[in-house]
Write a structure and sequence with these properties.
- The complex is a heterodimer of chains A (342) and B (448).
- Chain A is mainly α and 342 residues long.
- Chain A has a single domain, classed as Up-down Bundle (Formate dehydrogenase/DMSO reductase fold).
- Chain A has helices at residues 7-35, 42-52, 56-73, 75-84, 86-105, 112-142, 162-186, 189-220, 226-230, 236-253, 257-279, 303-330; strands at 282-284, 294-295.
- A two-stranded antiparallel ribbon of chain A has the order 1-2.
- In chain A, helix 1 (7-35) runs parallel beside helix 12, helix 3 packs across helix 4 (75-84) and helix 5 runs antiparallel to helix 6.
- In chain A, 56% of the residues are buried.
- Chain B has 448 residues and is mainly alpha-helical.
- Chain B folds into two domains: 1-178 and 402-427, no CATH class; 187-396, no CATH class.
- In chain B, 70% of the residues lie in helices and 8% in strands.
- Chain B is built from 15 helices and eight strands.
- Chain B has a two-stranded antiparallel ribbon with strand order 1-2. In chain B, strands 3-6 form a two-stranded antiparallel ribbon.
- Chain B is globular.
- The chains are: A mainly alpha (342), B mainly alpha (448).
- Chains A and B meet through helix 2, helix 3, helix 4, helix 5 and helix 12 of A and helix 3, helix 4, strand 2, helix 14 and helix 15 of B.
């Protein structure tokens, strides 16, 4: 594989970083949501909600900005994916809408039925969103049918390919593990002890899914490895991913929660980097007719726009990262309920 | 129904619903800065209580804005893929800049605004409030850049690409400061400030009428009446500037605003009227020559009429005419109401003039209606173009989406938005009724 460090490649990496930021940050929100119904009492569920309360919508902005960056840098890919995966995108929107309003609405009324309704809504919509994100990645790895005008030529049901579903479930397990570690990190006392019992099962579930997905990919989607064979240095991504993934149970065992969480973050980054290295320079692989694939070249905006956008990113992103870290710093430590809580 | 109409209806429904919230969060952002700033300056606990009350309301409005806003970003690609391919180079950049410069700022510091009262120093909290307000105002800038470019494209050239012709940036600043941007952004800001000012007036007037939380309600109302007057009067200026720009940039839309058909005659201004699009006539009460005067400063100057455009290049006229006139009428009504409030305030009678307080209670709907009608006339007035003069709406649809899918998504959005709107009004009402006290339902919960 030839990697040329042109603007297109830079934007491939930048869009990847934005979506990775989304996966890591909203990943624990979606994970906490997926586990939400395991918390039993009202207080426990409020602790779950409020552990992500101040940060979830800032986290979702990574998706919005990633989507905007995809639109700006690779409009053909944005147009083909969003129109082609119409039904799936609708479902994701419904998931994200209900996740948002469930957090906001749940604790506003004391009635048990009201809270239960929004608890279920919060949990189901979080799981649905997490699953769909994984299914989307699975399809992008596998390739989807595109016609010679780069328009999607498949159907919604075709997107529910067993491999895509497997990646979806793996993603869900990853988010659940990520969320479980986050919850243990953010809580204390009796509830923390209960939440701790969720960690090992989710780690086990993820490790199992991860192993199966890796094997299935090796045998049935071997094209994902072509780039790696061509530039073996890039095997660093999957190898490092494996190491940090294995480090998660180790840190949990030693009670170093923050390092476990950090390892989980790095695992996501490593897995997405592996994915990116596998599909480069394609954005949407066309399967069966590979000639119709959308790449970082035929899907891109003009060099001038990519250059302007790069300037915007260089000016903006460091500032965003600086104040995002400060805000997380303000909300560090164990979550407490007070009168401003959800 | 055909794909084009369905996609347009869906866009109208989703943007119309979304646009109930951002004007309020933009405008309330300004209020929060003023209120918290006053508290920091005077140390008066009244302003602390006031800020915290309005922050709670702000939080609910913001959440609905976020939930309905993400739909908008997806929808360009979902329903308007050909449009997205055509404008991505230009429009996408504005959208991405909005994410980087506005949404992160707004959503990030919202955490401290809502939940950080006891975690940071008062001054840091105030800075966060300013950051949220700035973020809200910035977000309007970029999306209005994108929209204005669609109305008055500039700074681009057309390039043949694999999937067809598309617009590419030649001059970034010409794209940003396209001919209608400054008029439109100031019009949007004033509309947002009006929406928030009349919202604060409504809630405060209700408290005063119910004899509750008097001190806070009166102090809030004082701030709101000043902003309402300022924004309502300035809105007349920005609206006028927008129309003048239309004369040179989008003459078909301007003609549709007044149902002006003759090719080359001076145009009047209708106070009220009805357009018959078949006979190409407009009947109603008209002040002759006034539109010529307003646009060109000369009542005998001819204004390009709709007959100068072939039928296929004309927007639907009557709906544009009616929504524009209704918006203008509401605009004048808002000036009247806010001036009446100001006069009553200066005479020291504001808080016991019950008819005026009742007017305030219901006037909250007026700026919301005017904002919706304004966008309706701007967007329908641009038809049949999605990008004025360059790309027709009928050529901008997604090729891999069919009408049945849009029927499905439209029904789904319809049901969800109806549900969300009902719950929003219910919860908003309750938050308001609870007043500035700590909200017990948030604090004490039964252990289930």
């Amino acid at each position: 594989m030839n990697i040329t460090f042109d603007l297109n490649t830079v934007w491939f990496v930048l869009v990847g970083i934005l979506f990775t930021g989304y996966a890591i940050l909203d990943g624990f929100d979606l994970g906490v949501g997926s586990l939400h119904l395991l918390a039993k009492t009202d207080r426990e569920r409020r602790l779950m909600l409020n552990s992500i309360g101040p940060v979830w919508d800032g986290n979702e902005v990574w998706l919005v900005t990633g989507g905007g960056a995809l639109f700006a840098a690779f409009p053909e890919a944005y147009a083909t994916a969003f129109s082609g995966f119409y039904m799936a995108m609708m479902l994701l929107l419904v998931g994200l809408i209900f996740r948002a309003v469930a957090i906001e609405f749940r604790s506003k009324q004391p009635m048990a039925w009201w809270r239960k309704l929004w608890d279920i809504s919060f949990s189901v919509s979080s799981m649905l969103s997490g699953l769909l994100i994984g299914v989307a990645l699975g399809n992008l790895a596998l390739g989807v049918p595109l016609d010679k005008h780069y328009e999607f030529a498949g159907s919604f049901w075709g997107l529910l390919h067993p491999y895509a579903l497997l990646v979806g479930i793996t993603g869900l397990a990853l988010f659940a593990m990520h969320g479980a570690i986050y919850i243990v990190m953010k809580t204390e006392g009796e509830f923390q002890d209960r939440a701790r019992t969720w960690v090992n099962p989710t780690i086990l579930a993820f490790l199992t899914c991860y192993a199966i997905t890796t094997l299935v990919t090796l045998f049935f989607v071997p094209q994902m490895l072509d780039n790696l064979w061509a530039a073996p240095a890039m095997f660093a991504f999957p190898v490092l991913s494996l190491l940090v993934i294995l480090n998660i149970p180790r840190e949990i065992h030693r009670g170093r929660l923050f390092l476990a969480f950090l390892s989980s973050c790095l695992a996501m980054a490593g897995l997405l980097a592996t994915f990116g290295a596998g599909v480069y320079p394609n954005l949407i692989v066309s399967n069966p007719d590979a000639a119709n694939s959308l790449t970082i070249y035929n899907a891109a905006s003009s060099d001038k726009t990519l250059g302007i956008m790069l300037l915007i990113a260089i000016l903006g992103i460091p500032i965003v990262i600086a104040y995002t870290i400060s805000i997380y710093w303000v909300f560090r430590g164990k979550v407490k309920l007070d009168e401003t809580s959800y | 129904m055909d794909l084009e109409l369905l996609s347009r209806i869906q866009f109208a429904v989703t943007i119309g619903f979304h646009y109930l919230f951002p004007p309020l969060s933009i405008g309330l952002g300004l209020f929060l800065v003023i209120m918290e700033g006053t508290y920091l300056k005077t140390g008066n606990p009244l302003y602390h209580q006031m800020t915290r009350f309005w922050v709670k309301i702000f939080g609910l409005i913001f959440a609905l804005g976020v939930a309905s806003g993400i739909v908008m970003e997806f929808q360009f690609g979902m329903n308007w893929a050909t449009y997205s391919r055509f404008v991505g180079d230009v429009f996408g950049s504005a959208l991405a800049a909005e994410g980087i410069f506005a949404f992160f700022l707004e959503s990030g510091f919202l955490a401290i605004l809502l939940f950080g009262w006891d975690k940071v120093k008062p001054r840091t909290h105030f800075i966060s409030t300013i950051a949220v307000a700035l973020g809200a105002h910035f977000s309007a800038i970029w999306i209005v850049v994108a929209n204005s470019w669609q109305q008055t494209p500039a700074g681009f050239h057309i390039v043949e690409h694999a999937t067809g012709a598309r617009a590419e940036i030649v001059d970034f600043w010409a794209v940003v400061f396209n001919p209608s941007f400054l008029d439109r952004i100031s019009h949007v800001y004033m509309g947002a400030w009006q929406a928030a000012a009349f919202f604060v007036l409504s809630v405060s007037a209700w408290f005063i009428l119910r004899n509750k939380h008097l001190e806070m309600a009166q102090a809030s109302m004082k701030i709101a009446i000043v902003i309402a007057c300022f924004a309502s009067i300035l809105q007349l200026v920005t609206g006028h500037a927008s129309s003048v720009t239309l004369g040179s940039t989008q003459p078909a839309k301007l003609a549709a605003f007044e149902g002006h058909y003759p090719q080359n005659e001076p145009a009047g201004l209708y106070l009220i009227g009805w357009v018959n699009e078949d006979s190409e006539t407009t009947t109603g009460v008209q002040i002759p020559g006034l539109m010529s005067y307003l646009v060109y400063g000369d009542s005998s100057m001819p204004v390009t009429g709709l007959k100068s455009f072939p039928l296929e290049d004309r927007p639907p006229v009557n709906i544009v005419f009616q929504s524009f006139h209704l918006m203008v009428a509401i605009g004048f009504l808002l000036i009247l109401i806010s001036l009446a409030g100001l006069v009553a305030f200066l005479r020291g009678r504001l808080f016991n003039t019950r008819w005026l307080l009742w007017t305030f209670v219901f006037a909250v709907l007026l700026p919301q209606a005017a904002n919706q009608l304004g966008w309706l006339s701007a967007e329908v007035g641009r038809q049949p173009w999605i990008v004025y003069g360059l790309l027709r709406t009928s050529d901008a649809l997604s090729k891999s989406v069919d009408a049945s899918q849009v029927v499905g998504s439209l029904l789904l959005f319809g049901v969800i938005y109806l549900l969300l709107f009902t719950l929003f009004i219910f919860l908003l009402n309750e938050k308001i009724q609870n007043g500035p006290e700590l909200q017990r339902s948030d604090v004490e919960v039964s252990q289930s």
